[in-house]
């Protein structure tokens, strides 16, 4: 279900996506409003679920997480028990940045951040020891060309 947003709401969201650490005064100035109406709009959008939790973006390479793998998983198991076990295993692994269930020949794709290929192998060995997987293909990202958290408004 989508929420009705006007142009000012969208401008506020754009500012928050760019830098949620901005003061209300800065946001209000940039969107052409005053502080109290901006605060009220932000509160309403939080209450409506448009704005979720706030967090900081960290630089993975600065933290020694230089390898990014995209892991394609095919499974011959499609029972609820297997899926629950698989999802628990993924959620317990901090290396898994994203996980998506797909339509088509590949059942799941994971985005995994680790220090290096050896660390990926450790992750892989742990995953296959927890849950049975038919086929795994790991693709190493050679270069991140674009990465954003900004949604098109």
- Strand count: 4
Average pLDDT works out at: 95
Number of helices: 5
Poorly predicted runs: none
Widest sheet: strand ordering? 2-3-1-4
Our Rg estimate from Cα atoms comes to 20 Å
Q: Roughly what fraction of the amino acids lie in strands?
A: 15-25%
Class by alpha and beta content: alpha+beta
Shape: elongated
| Run of helices and strands | HHHEHEEHE
Largest sheet: 4 strands, antiparallel
The N- and C-terminal alpha carbons lie at a distance of 16 Å
Proportion of residues in helical segments: 25-40%
Description:
There is one protein chain. The model has no long low-confidence stretch (mean pLDDT 95). This protein has a 4-stranded antiparallel sheet. The protein is elongated and about 55 Å long. It has helices spanning 7-18, 24-31, 35-47, 80-92, 117-130, and strands at residues 67-74, 96-101, 108-114, 135-140. It has 153 residues and is an alpha+beta fold. It contains 5 helices and 4 strands, in the order H-H-H-E-H-E-E-H-E. A hairpin with a 6-residue loop joins strand 2 and strand 3. The protein starts with 6 loop residues before the first helix and ends in a 13-residue tail after the last strand. The longest helix is centred in the C-terminal third of the chain and has 14 residues, at 117-130.
Task: From the structure above, extract its key features.
4 strands; elongated; 5 helices; four-stranded antiparallel beta sheet
Outline of the structure:
The chain is of the alpha+beta class and 153 residues long. It contains 5 helices and 4 strands, in the order αααβαββαβ. The model has no long low-confidence stretch (mean pLDDT 95).
């Amino acid at each position: 279900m989508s929420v009705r947003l006007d142009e000012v709401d969208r401008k506020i969201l754009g500012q928050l996506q760019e830098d949620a650490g901005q003061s209300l005064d800065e946001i209000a100035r940039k969107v052409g409003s005053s502080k109290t109406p901006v605060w009220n709009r932000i509160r309403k959008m939080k209450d409506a679920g448009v704005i979720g939790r706030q967090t900081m973006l960290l630089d993975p390479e600065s933290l020694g997480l230089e390898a990014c793998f995209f892991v394609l998983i095919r499974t011959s198991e499609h029972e609820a028990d297997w899926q629950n076990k698989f999802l628990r295993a993924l959620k317990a692994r901090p290396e898994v940045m994203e996980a998506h269930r797909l339509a088509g020949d590949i059942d799941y794709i994971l985005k995994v951040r680790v220090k290096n290929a050896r660390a990926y192998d450790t992750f892989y060995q742990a995953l296959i020891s927890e849950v049975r997987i038919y086929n795994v293909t790991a693709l190493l990202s050679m270069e991140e060309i674009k990465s954003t958290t900004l949604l098109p408004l």
